[in-house]
Amino acid sequence: MYQGHNLRSRLGVVMVMFSALLGIQSGILFLFVFHEQREYHSIVSGVSWPDLSIGMQTVIYGILKIVGGGFMAFGAGMACLVFPIARGDNWARCCALCLSAFVWLPTLYVCFVFLDVNPASNPPVLPALMMFLLPVAGTLLSYRPAISDLAET
Fold this sequence. Notes:
Layout: H1 2-33, H2 39-45, H3 54-87, H4 90-117, H5 125-141, H6 147-152
Helix pairs in contact: 1-3, 1-5, 3-4, 4-5
């Protein structure tokens, strides 16, 4: 029983580490690659990037950079929590769950608002859902009972 539990715990830590890497990747995309609104933004707003005023382009550009910073902070925070989670620290699992909820649930909410406004917009619902569920599942799988708990079973 302990061996299977150890394997499950390691899988959970790998999932947390993978979510950290994906968060950093998302942050890099929004900070350094995306310089204008995404296609689904144009579909929801009904206005393409060239048709926006320079002021609106500047606002959207700024929002993309803020989002990138948030995704990067998520990834860096999750990366900092990998070793404490691997050690079995419950506080680190709690922090990982909070980070995931505070970043990805609002992101999912906005995706669903976009879908409500225009179902053809195709916002990244599945990637956002994956980014929320991956660290949640990882933190749950990484749980290891104390040695005293194992002795009782």
